[in-house]
């Protein structure tokens, strides 16, 4: 997602919280609003549907990005176990099941 934002020249909006320009400069304000809208759209399109609702309410792309970082850099033990289990199931593929006895390594045909 960072690469897409960088390719569009919008990475600065997730690196720092860029303040809204003063209302006296209409062209700068319009350009800022378009860039913020595009950044928000890229961030929202890059996540799954169940995450969109929690990001949509954030005030700026920078805050949205920080929320994503907090969500996906979770270091809880439970999350690691869930990911390990998912990886094991993906590797297992083809309908084979492994024995539940820890010392046995051989697949059991099911």
Topology of this structure?
Elements: H1 2-7, H2 12-15, H3 26-45, H4 49-56, H5 61-72, H6 77-92, E1 97-98, E2 107-108
Antiparallel strand pairs: 1-2
Radius of gyration: 22 Å
Shape: elongated
State the helicity in percent bands: 55-70%
Q: Which structural class fits the helix and strand makeup? A: mainly alpha
Structure characterization notes:
By secondary structure, the protein is mostly helical. The protein folds into 2 domains: 2-73, no CATH class; 81-110, no CATH class. The chain has 6 helices and 2 strands. It has a two-stranded antiparallel sheet. A hairpin with an 8-residue loop joins strand 1 and strand 2 (107-108). The longest helix is centred in the first third of the chain and has 20 residues, at 26-45. The protein is elongated and about 70 Å long. It starts with a helix and ends with a strand.
Summarize the structure.
This protein has 110 residues and is mainly alpha-helical. It has helices at residues 2-7, 12-15, 26-45, 49-56, 61-72, 77-92, and strands at 97-98, 107-108.
Identify the notable features of this structure and list them briefly.
elongated, 2 domains, 2 strands, mainly alpha, 110 residues
């Amino acid at each position: 997602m960072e690469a897409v934002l960088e390719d569009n020249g919008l990475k600065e909006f997730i690196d720092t919280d860029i303040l809204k320009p003063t209302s006296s400069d209409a062209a700068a304000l319009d350009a800022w609003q378009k860039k913020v809208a595009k950044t928000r759209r890229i961030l929202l399109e890059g996540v799954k549907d169940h995450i969109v609702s929690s990001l949509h309410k954030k005030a700026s792309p920078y805050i949205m990005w920080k929320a994503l970082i907090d969500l996906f850099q979770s270091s809880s033990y439970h999350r690691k176990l869930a990911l390990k289990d998912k990886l094991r199931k993906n590797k297992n593929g083809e309908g084979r099941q492994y024995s539940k006895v820890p010392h046995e390594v051989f697949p059991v045909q099911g």
